[in-house]
Structures are given as C-alpha cells and as structure tokens.
Amino acid sequence: MDDLLKRDAALLWHPYASLTEPSPTRLVTGASGVRLTLDDGAGGTVEAIDAMASWWCMIHGYRNPVLDAALRDQIDSFSHVMFGGLTHEPAVRLGERLVELTPEPLRHVFFCDSGSVSVEVALKLALQYQRARGFAGRTRMLTVRGGYHGDTFAPMSVCDPVNGMHSLFTGALQEQVFGPQPPAGFDRPADDPEYLAWAEAMRALAAVYRDEVAAIVVEPILQGAGGMYPYSPACLRLLRELADEYGFLLILDEIATGFGRTGTLFASEHAGVDPDILCVGKALTGGYLSMAATLCTTDVAHTVSGGPGGALMHGPTFMANPLACAVALASIDLLMASDWSAEISRISAGLSTGLAPAASLPGVKDVRVLGAVGVVQLGGPVDLPRMTDAVLRRGVWVRPFRDLVYTMPPYVCTDEEIATICTAITEAVAEGN
Questions:
Q1: Which of the 8 DSSP states describes residue 228?
Q2: Which reaction does it catalyse (predicted)?
C-alpha cells in the first residue's frame, strides 16, 4: 500500500494541491454505508465516518444496494450512447422527474457532465437569450462577493475575485459586476440596517449596469466553497425583483444546496423564489457518477432557439450518459421515498447540539448550522494536515479549508454517527490549530 502512495505522489496532481509539496494523502481501500476504509500505513486498516459525503454528493452512503442495482441493470442494456440525434429512456425519465421536482416555471433540461459545466451552460444561455432579444451589449453577469461556481473559465469569472480561489486568473477572466456579499445570517430580518444597506447597493449596481448585465448569478441561501456562509431569504427575493425590473435572467446555482441539503428540497424554496435558470449536480446521482443539469423556463428555451444559431451552442460528449441518468433516477426516487425533510431536521438538530460546545473554545469565531451543514469557523486559517489528523484519530474524515472545519454528512448517518462527527471536530479544535 505504501508503494501506491509513492506512485501517486510521483505522478498524480490532487485538487488544489502542490505536486512538489503535496499535503498528506490517505489510501482508500473500501467504502460502505457512511464509512471509508483507509490503509493505516502499518499493514492494517482503519474506518472513518465520511463527514464530507465525498464533497457533499454521497447522500445515500457508499455501496447503496438500490443505486448499485440501477447501474447493473442499465449496463446490461448499454452503458453509453451519444445524445446528438439519439435519446434513451433513462434520459427522458430523468428529465421528466427533474421538471416535476424543480420550481414550476422550469420546463426544459440540458444535461451536463459536471456542476461547473452546468454553470457554463447557464451563462451561455443567458448570453444567447439577451442576444436573441436584441440586447447584444448585455454580456456581463451581476453577482455578489463570496460566491463560488466552479473551476472552469466562465464560472471562475463569477466567483469571488479577491477572496476566492481564482485570484491568480485576474485579468484573464471576463470582468463581471460584483456587489457586496449579503449580510450574514439566515434569520436576519428584511428591516435590518445591514440588509437595507446591502439592498440599496445592489439596486444601485443594477441601475448603473442595466444595459450591460445579462443575468444575476448566485448560490441561493448558502454560499458553499466560498465559506459555508448563510444569508437571508430576503436577499434572494430582492435579486428576483431586480431581475424582473431590469430584464435580467436569474440563475440559481443549487449544485451544493439542491436535493434537501439546507432543509428544503431546493434552497430557493426558503425565499419562495423561482429562477429562470437552475443548475443542479453533486447529489443528483447520489455521488455515483459525475452528472449535472441546467434547467430553464420555456421563455428562455424558446427565445434562445429562435435566436442566432437556432440552438444552444453546447454539446458534451457524455451528455445524458445512460448510466448516470439511471443512477440519478434511482437516487431521486430513493430520496423522495424517504421522509427526507424529517431526516434533515434530525441531522440539523444533532449538529446544533453536538457542535454547540465548540463555540466557547479559544480560537473559534463562529459555530453555525443550516440544514445538514455544520460549521466551526476559526479565527484564522486551519492547519489542514494537523486538523485532518486530529479528527481522523477520532474516527472521522473531514477536509477543512480556509478557516473552516465543517461537515456535510450523508443523510443516512445515524444520531450516534452525527454525535461522533461533532465530538471529533470539537475535540480536534480544542487541541489547538
């Protein structure tokens, strides 16, 4: 096993890691339920609860028999076929299911191979839509600081340009219009002075750039990789109003928040807001295969189809991959057949109780929970290797970043497993960072 790690270090580049001075890498030898089996470096193995749900997507756990069976059944028919000029039952059924579950105005589905690509497609849709309407000068996006929308070029341009992960590319990316980050706090009222100041700033930007902006792009209610940062539904309602007033489209990136993570099936439901374009991914396939989707209204679809080119100019090779469609259908059915809302509430309560003691620890700036997301924010950057080791010694796998030690666990975690996650994080933070 040690040989595998050496071979990995010599040739494989891991995400957001140096090739020459990488952070420690653990070898996974198996996974089942909510647990990873890791090589312990001494000829044995250790098990750890995956408190990350494999970067938030493995909501039903590993080796789920229902999802395993869906893949086996589909592969017995065919594993892939191009989507240009062809179709298949899993794609049609998944499209119908997504339209059924998402906000009512969304009636059309474009399948993508990753969340970042779904944002690329959404931005293309907005640009083609405005051009078809005769507004060729509307080539920029209005968004807010603190956001994260993916690592490919167009999504990078709508990520936070200063405190985000893509500041190295400043000057090479399309210059978008950035408003201030919404004031923190899911429960912040609409008459709060900080909210009112933020709303005024966003109104001013919309007015100034009314002839340049094609769409507003945000993660609804919870900014994910930008800092696990919750904000008030009132902010989302204000953005919907601005889009309607100035003829912008509203693009909601629910790649991280969709399928129940924040307590509603889609985070936009907290605000009672419907987007013109919606991006979903991550939990879509239950973590089994990479797949995403971009949904839009009939107005958007028909306007783009009637505009220059007569088509949405995008076409991934693995678009609507049958295996991914089949497992996505099984994952959605599994979720909807459960009392998922009660399960998220149960996890939320467990995280709130279990992480509360961390609030009084030295060096802790904030402890917050929204749905099945629990966050301990430190007063400075996390020592990633030390913190990862400290939590892992307590039987839990986490992947901290920036100043955050957080968990977005699988929905199938038991109360005892949630308590274990919270204890491991709290004790590891208490050891010092």
A1: S
A2: (8S)-8-amino-7-oxononanoate + S-adenosyl-L-methionine = S-adenosyl-4-methylsulfanyl-2-oxobutanoate + (7R,8S)-7,8-diammoniononanoate
Reduced 3-state DSSP string for 90-131: HHHHHHHHHHHHCCCCEEEEEEECCHHHHHHHHHHHHHHHHH
Tens digit of each residue's pLDDT (9 = 90 or more) over 230-244: 999 999 999 999 999
Structure tokens at 395: 């039987």
CA 153, 155, 159, 164 dihedral sign is: negative
- Percent of the chain with pLDDT strictly greater than 90: 89
Over residues 4-25, the mean pLDDT reads 89
Task: Specify the CATH number of the domain 1-63+340-432.
Answer: 3.90.1150.10
Sheet with 106-112, edge to edge strand ranges = 106-112, 292-297, 277-280, 249-253, 213-218, 140-144, 177-179
Task: Report which of residues 54 and 40 the model is more confident about.
Answer: 54
CB contact burial 56-84 (16+ within 10 A = b; e otherwise): bbbbbbbebeebeebbeebeeeeeeeebe
Please tell me the pTM assigned to this model. 0.96
**Which CATH number is 66-337's, of 3.50.40.10, 3.40.640.10, 3.40.50.300, 3.40.50.1000?**
3.40.640.10
Q: Quick one: pLDDT at residue 1?
A: 60
Q: Provide the β-strand partners of residue 376.
A: 367, 405
For the chain, domain boundaries: 1-63+340-432, 66-337
pLDDT digits (tens, 9 = 90+) for 71-101: 999 999 999 999 999 999 999 999 999 999 9
Is there a binding annotation on residue 55? yes
CA atoms within 13 A on the CB side of 302: 5
Contact 195, 189 (CB under 8 A): yes
Asked if residue 282 belongs to a known ligand binding site, the reply is yes
SS3 per-residue string spanning 362-407: CCEEEEEEECCEEEEEECCCCCHHHHHHHHHCCCEECCCECCEEEE
Q: Which residues are catalytic?
A: 16, 148, 253, 282
68 assigned to a ligand binding site = no
Q: Is 13 annotated as a binding residue?
A: no
Q: What is the pLDDT of residue 167?
A: 77
Residue 22: what pLDDT?
84
In Å, how far are 110, 111, 290 from 319, measured between CA atoms?
Answer: 8, 6, 11
In terms of DSSP bridges, do strands 35-39 and 28-32 run parallel, antiparallel, or are they unpaired?
A: antiparallel
Distance from C-alpha of 272 to C-alpha of 233, rounded to nearest angstrom: 8
Q: Give CA–CA dist 157/175, Å, rounded.
A: 7
Secondary structure of residue 35 in the 3-state scheme = strand
**According to the annotation, is 148 in a ligand binding site?**
yes
Whether 1-63+340-432 shares its CATH topology with 66-337 is answered no
